[in-house]
Fold this protein.
Amino acid sequence: MVLRVVKPLSPAGRDHAPMDTPRPDDHTLALQALTAVLDPEIGENIVDLGLVERLLVEPQRIVLRLVLTSPTCPMGGAIAEDAERALAQALPGRRIDIDEADEVLWTPERLSAAARRRLGWDDAAA
């Protein structure tokens, strides 16, 4: 279901924007918030790095499972804290549960195409 917000005219009556604009769903808002969370060692956002294994957004809670680039990643706690802050700011009032998907191994194949280009791992350029 797509929610639409009716946009009122400006006080001067000159607002020529469409009367209704789609409101991003909560899952989209959560993903957008997570793109602001950077892996401090790599300098890329956790979405493009493929660290988001699972994102469940419900009316009362958010569940995030992260795959770290290494099982002994020293920045895992900092990444989780940053993700929690970003989600709480984007979707306030929900319980946020974050854990690590220990059973999943991170590999470079998890990188988005944009991250591959930025990191110089673009196979097409080779």
In short: The helical segments are 26-34, 76-90, 113-119. Residues 69 and 106 are 5 Å apart (CA to CA). The chain has one domain: 25-125.
